[in-house]
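Appendix B. Raw example, untouched.
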Amino acid sequence: MRVIEVENLAKSYGGVSALTDLSFGCLEASTLAVLGPNGAGKTTAVKILATLLRADGGQAFVDGIDVAAHPREVRARIGLTGQYAAVDERLTGRENLELVGRLLRLGSKESAARAADLLTQLRLSDASDRVSKGYSGGMRRRLDIAMSLIGRPSVLFLDEPTTGLDPRSRLEMWDLIDDLVRGGTTMLLTTQYLDEADRLADSIVVIDHGHAIATGTAEQLKQDIGGDRVVLTLSEPSQRAAAASAMSPFAVAAPRDGDHDAELIIPVKPTTTLVEVLRCLDRASVGVDDIEMRRPTLDDVFFRLTGSTTSQEPVDDDR
């Protein structure tokens, strides 16, 4: 059963199109990762699903409920965590949670019980009575998610959930997301971290310029672009053009830059061997410090689909 359903969504801001004919869906108790460069429309799509924006066209459903026609019913079923933690730094972790409970009209007793449960579940019990201003980034993020879970939502929207977190906190956040999905929560997360999507997502939709350009599992998307990649670390970065020319008999697509000036990545035919590659490079007098054959990654998929990588730091400029 599809718990989230988006059909032909359109949204413009002052004549600038943010979403155009966007469609995707998410199954119950699964994780959908929405990938895309900055400004692709990811946050706009989440805001429409969370009833914070109205679409100009198309429809969106949560639990079979039209988000535009019945926003209050949708809000009763969802939780939302934005790109930055919405925590009141003057309150303790427990007070933040109890405040949200009272705003949701749970009553003081139920709010306190729910807060205690979530503090334990999200491993915040030891810091529950400390002012949240002193929390680490990972702790603040967990508290923010706990606040989204007070009302026991069946669907949780996470917009860039690990932005700004250190590696350990990111891993803790991934474990938390896994636990929530195993417990029956349907999860939609936007991210620019491809390792995050590869690790967490049951399905992926790639958005560029406001519409979906690819959907599928991580493995399906990798298979769709096919083939291995030869990764060259050149002895002299100035030999990039010569290396690309020497590799042309094996290449199935244009070479692209790697992580540094001396690295070149070339999609190659499935029959290509490193021995053949080294012979061609030697004949062209191209020196290499390292050579590697790699299977396609989500980064390769993303580059092929959008013409860009996601190595830049995420910023809050998404429409």
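End of appendix B.
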